[in-house]
């Protein structure tokens, strides 16, 4: 098995491409070992000393490390954990993981803004999320209130030094151009 590795805009995160499907459906973001219990792969990655985050996408795994650790020290262990998982035939998520799939936070917006929210979600799904996935992350719609779109960044995007530029220069400009009433974008 050959696993490709790609850098992301976040120097603390690397993207690992095993050359096969990783996760069907919505991506999953794990920020600690406790949350990763629902995924044998994420749990194995958190057992590598220095791993602080795991993001499972459709065909990739993004791994975030602690600032005090160098990639040269943990990359072989991360590659080994990914390879061992796929060679073992274990599932990516435990059978009961779908029950825990949703974030505890619900979306928020006024009923009269539902058409605007649908346009925002469509633009995020078709124009933003595919581009962000190429960088090893994801952006999730959380809410809309009084002209402000609230988004949650995951994977390589969470904590990335260029995430503010992505939000303001990219996503905010796109939404302001295509969606009347959108004034700004904020990360939550």
Overall pLDDT: 90
Strand/helix succession: EEEHEEHHEEHE
Determine the fraction of residues in helical runs and give it as a percent range: 25-40%
Please state the CA-atom Rg, rounded to the nearest Å: 17 Å
Structural class: alpha+beta
Q: Describe the strand arrangement of the main beta sheet, using strand numbers.
A: 1-2-5-4-3
Q: Which percent range describes the beta-strand content?
A: 15-25%
> Kindly, what is the distance between the CA atoms of the first and last residues, rounded to a whole number of angstroms?
38 Å
Runs with pLDDT <50, length 5+?
Answer: none
The largest sheet is: 5 strands, antiparallel
Describe this entry's structure for a reader.
The protein is α+β, with helices and mostly antiparallel strands. The protein is built from 4 helices and 8 strands; from the N terminus they run E-E-E-H-E-E-H-H-E-E-H-E. The chain has helices at residues 40-46, 71-88, 114-134, 163-178, and strands at residues 4-7, 13-17, 28-30, 51-56, 61-65, 137-145, 148-155, 184-187. Strands 1-2-5-4-3 form a 5-stranded antiparallel sheet, covered by helices on one side. A hairpin with a 2-residue loop joins strand 6 (137-145) and strand 7 (148-155). Helix 1 runs antiparallel to helix 2. The mean pLDDT is 90.
Brief account:
With 188 residues, the protein is α+β, with helices and mostly antiparallel strands.
Blueprint (SSEs and pairs):
Layout: E1 4-7, E2 13-17, E3 28-30, H1 40-46, E4 51-56, E5 61-65, H2 71-88, H3 114-134, E6 137-145, E7 148-155, H4 163-178, E8 184-187
Parallel strand pairs: 7-8
Antiparallel strand pairs: 1-2, 2-5, 3-4, 4-5, 6-7
Helix pairs in contact: 1-2
